[in-house]
Sequence to fold (1102 residues):
Amino acid sequence: MATDESTIDADDSTVGNDDSPFHARAEYDATPGDVVLELLDIWVFTPARILWNDYRGRFGIILLSLYIAMGTVGTIVVPEPGIGQGDTLMQPFQSLEHPLGTDGLGQDMLGLMVHATPNMFRMIIAGAVFGGVLGIAIGLIAGYEGGTLDKVLMTITDSVGSIPGLPLLLILVALIDPSNPYLVGIILNIQGWTGAARGIRSQTLAIRKKEYVEVSEAMGESKSNILFKDALPELLPMIIFGFLGGATGIIHASVGLYFLGILPFDHLNWGVVLNHAYQQSGALYSLDAAHWLLIPAVVITGMTVAFVMLAQAFDQVFNPRVRARHEARKRNREDPELDDDGTVTSEDTTQVGIQ
Amino acid sequence: MYGATETTTETREQSKDTIIEVRNASVTFDMNRGRGRVLDDVDLDVYRGETLGIAGESGSGKSMLASALLDAVEDPGMLTGDVTYYPEDGDPIDILELDNSDLQRLRWEEIAMVFQGAMDSFNPTVPIKAHFVDTLEAHNADVEEGLQRARSIMHDLNLDPERILEVDTYQHELSGGQRQRILIALSLILEPELLVLDEPTGALDLLMQRKILKLLHEIKDDYNLTMLIVSHDLPIISAFADRVGVMYAFELVERGDVEDVLYNPSHPYTRSLLRATPDPQTPLDEITTVDGSAPDPVNIPSGCTFHPRCPVAGDRCEIEEPDMVEVDDETEHVASCFYQEEGKEEIPAPVSKESGDFTFEVDDTWSRHPIEDPILELEDVSVRYKDPPLTERTLPDSILERLDERYDIVEPPVHALTDVSLELGEEDVLVLVGESGSGKSTLGRTAIGLEEPTEGSVKYDGYDVQAVERGEHTGEILFEDVRRAMQIIHQDPSAALNPYRTIRSSLSQPLKRWHSDMDLNDRRARIKQMLESTGIRPAEEYMERYPNELSGGEQQRVSIIRAMLIEPNVILSDEVVSALDVSLRVELMNLLLDMQDTFSTSYLFISHNLTNARYFAGKANGRIAVMYLGQIVETGPIDEVLSDPKHPYTKILKWATLPLDPDSARETIIEESPIVTEKSPDPRNPPSGCSFHEACPKAREACTQTRPKLDSDGNQLHRAACFRDDPDHEYWQSEPLHGEEREIPGE
Fold:
């Protein structure tokens, strides 16, 4: 009987029957420290190590760290740009005072680049988090629950997704007059969640039919546990890719809108620099002003590349086969007795193991 | 029977001439873990006109050997050695030296292959006919003439060539058995000399297996073929082949005439494998397991590859690689073992020449009384599935109905289960047997509350499960306790474990859910002990592995442990052993039975074959329920049902189960199928009366009128839903349906 818990009761395990594997207990209790270490290892150390072992991941981390340094330390070290800091249109790599040269108004290019970074990060974080969270939540719920809820959520998603993007942005910007970078980020990614929600829903539909999800359901697991422990790990590569893809999207959208002059020039942005370069100097036709256009272009591309590289490398973090190999290597270090590859059985034998 | 054996012996004696000769064939793979050897120095001759069986467990290299014959080993595999083909007239051809165009000509025109997995062998976007035309065009053959030939082959294979070739038929319109036969027809279209069949009946139902084996037997003579049949299923080889080669760890370990090898197996591996095969005739206690597991291709044991698992291995076996030794001077029976005689003493012969029935050792402890206090009770349960696309449509029902009246757009629901009642006691075992589509999985899943019955009720411990879920018995029993009490173990162990979780994390799940008082270290300790108690060692290391690092058997053990950690009272074991190797099946069934002793759980055990059903229920003093088209047609204690089946369908299933013994297997393989039509009835429009009457050789007019019920009066345990069970029924006065009433062999 389910209610007859004689075999389960904790107190029972100490009385008799100690040999049975169903009564095994540890000799000492787990300290909070054990638990924290364990969690840290699963969620922080191992993923970080795998990322670092992948050349794309390493490249992405280094590149992104440069931008983060630019946005934090950089703003303190490099003085804020101002009109008439130096001569106009100084060429880059000529003087230490203005290493990247100056623009047509005599502003330091390095300063322009550096001081635009913090706001860029603010926009990315706000936009990507907004799009990601909304997309994951709607996609997971619609896919797992199905039925009417699914239909309602997907109708909303499709309706939002089918509004033409640029006109929507123009109207929103005109209505809201965004000066807060976080708000700008959210507006820029206002439709970003629709794609994510669609994708995650379709994946969830497939996952919820999997046998291990059925086992969890039969076990009486709570819905949130099933969603977060069974469905989410499989979706993580997609989520991270969507997240980082959203980030690059926001970079491009903000640069584009600032360039077009649709967003107010309250803040420094690489797009503003591009706009000035295009509007005021004819940088497209003159070699003298070429750097005014090229430097922001390179800076924008660099940040995009960093995110793309990271996104690709994250795929490795969530791939259980890669993780398995990583764990095996770790076991080897702890236990040099094992042979070079650690495991005796691995993917190749597993495939032939069942028919 | 004797017709068959005579002709085969005849052909064998006539022609000792070799059609294909394999010498020192090896296949190596470079893996990131080192160099893997998946075929190790194999020598083999195939004689013209014979059927050679290659037996072995999955991963033993048998499919690799088959691919080697066509030089079709896929990259990055490297095939070395010699493969020589001897055409009937002309010079020998060294297959491995051929250039691509010659190789293409050789394949299909001389040697054709029927690959494993008929289900996926056709392009779903192209009609079947195009596959034939493409093959003919690729070989510059006359298409019209070729299609004519295809029609006659299809006719011989009992297919309707008009339907398949004249109309654009796509693969999804065909059943698995039809696809498999079309695949065979496609392989014969260029009139090859040698046909290689890789698990030709792999995914098919019992009756279809028998049909295809019989057809293969017939076309072999009609088309003058040499056949090489690769299978893990020993009874198929026993019934079908003249000679057999047994593979273990990428080598041939024994080879000889089927009778010699099966009656006098001389390699310890062959002997153990035969003993691990649940055969209807082997006494239950004599079915044993093969200890240990098959070696990794990267890490093959030195000396004799079987020595780590061999009960008679000596020091010599660890160092020296045994050569093929003749077992008997007069035959070509050879085995690669130093200690053949010791092996024969240690491991008794598993196949006896006496052909017999399913045997049971029944003793006094067997219960012969109805279940008094059932833990699980199903009453007149029916399950119907509506078409998913229609339920997804957003039209209101009223409009749908009116549309349906006019345009007939709503298909009737699938009758997955119809009026099924069953009871399961405590520590009980009930085996559900049936072909695919018979509703056994639906019944199991409905019984444990994973699906809702459309009609009828499922009671757990006297409480209606759905009522409990609705909260009608609050205070008496909690739904979560009911949910916890009924668990499932799936067929495919790799899909049942979350690939993103380590073994420890997967096994922690039930403990976290139901033993919140246990902390991290307690859980770790219990999981470790459980793993060790099921033979997964070193447990500490396995705990941190991901499912893909485990073999199929290990994964299935982890699934079983996980179900046990929930401590349920009823476990649905859905074809738990059918995805596993022969030698592992018995081991895992034993594990389940041991767990029952420790845990006092009841099992609903789903199986599509009678041999596993007999082993599992026979060991546990259990019952069997035979299902057909959503109904239980016969139920009762396993020994009574199998030794004295009452329902014609059970009798036919029993007939379709091939014995290991080659003499009786060959005798049965040529028998005409007693079934009237292979077409299974449409579950959307089940036939009136008895649902089996269209196929039943014993059907009479009465069977079309009313549906026979499993009579539930009194204490009778062995019951069949058939009018023949009742000597006074009007059935006996009515006319037979399909002309002369046919006998079911073995009746």
